[in-house]
Amino acid sequence: MLEGMTPPKPRSVYCKIQQMSADLSEKDYEIFIEAVNDTQKWPAKTLTNSLRSRGVSVADTTITKHRTGNCACFRD
């Protein structure tokens, strides 16, 4: 019955973009994801600064990792 049981992944392997998205309203989620995905209008540093001015803390490196598929969202 318990064969193959494994411990849960540590929280540090989750993508902060994904974590933050889960806590947003539907409208804020759409705005946030659109901005994260729009590299032309929102360079990572510009987006970070704009989010921080609204009380949302996320690093430009986190945004870049998510955009390039190098975050936990894209791991098995």
Task: Explain this structure.
Helices cover about 50% and strands about 0% of the residues. α3 (about 45-55) crosses α4 (about 60-65). The protein is mostly helical and about 80 residues long. The two termini are about 25 Å apart. It is elongated. The chain is built from four helices and no strands.
| Relative helix content | 40-55%
Give the beta-strand count.
Answer: 0
User: Which sequence of SSEs, written as H and E, runs from N to C?
Assistant: HHHH
Distance between the termini: 24 Å
Radius of gyration: 15 Å
Low-pLDDT runs: none
The total count of helices amounts to 4
Please supply descriptive tags for the structure shown above.
single chain; 76 residues; mainly alpha
Brief digest:
With 76 residues, the chain is mostly helical. The chain has helices spanning 16-22, 26-37, 44-53, 60-67. It is elongated.
SSE arrangement:
Elements: H1 16-22, H2 26-37, H3 44-53, H4 60-67
Helix pairs in contact: 3-4
